[in-house]
Amino acid sequence: MTHQCHWEGCYKEVPPKLWGCKKHWFALPLWIRDRIWATYRPGQEISKDPSASYIEVAKVAKVYCKVMNEYGLKAPKEKIDEEVKKFLKGKVSFI
Ligand SMILES: [Zn+2]
Q1: Is residue 71 part of a domain?
Q2: Residue 63 and residue 84 in contact, taking contact as beta carbons nearer than 8 Å
Q3: How far is ligand 1, taken at its centre, from the CA of residue 38, in Å?
Q4: Distance between CA 83 and CA 52 in Å, rounded?
Q5: Distance 95 CA to ligand 1 centre (A)
Q6: Would you say residue 14 lies in a domain?
């Protein structure tokens, strides 16, 4: 079974326990990376039962990918946050 980077448009193969390739992982804001680790359950990629909080943060990460794909990885952080917040308004509990 292959496991690819979760970044939209990136098909790099990564170990199942990692969210994505190094480049894209570090493109995510630190608080998202922390939250992914905090909610990650070892073996979830095999049992396919990630926690609800993991699914939620994974969704937020996806939105970050989308926005950063649009504005570029070097886009101003504030701009990205603003777009992500607009997109997620009311959809997640922690942003
Ligand atoms: Zn990637």
Answers
A1: yes
A2: yes
A3: 21
A4: 24
A5: 23
A6: no
Domain that holds residue 70: 30-88
Helix residue spans in the chain (DSSP H): 22-25, 30-39, 44-47, 52-71, 77-88
Token pair listed for 85: 């917040």
Residue 8 lies in a domain: no
Q: Which amino acid is at 19?
A: W
1 in any annotated domain:
no
Residue pLDDT, tens place only, 45-73: 888 889 999 999 999 999 999 999 999 98
7, 20 in Cβ contact below 8 A?
yes
pTM: 0.84
Instruction: Compute, in angstroms, the gap from residue 24 CA to the centroid of ligand 1.
Output: 5
- How far, in Å, is the centroid of ligand 1 from the Cα of 88? 22
Domains in the chain, number: 1
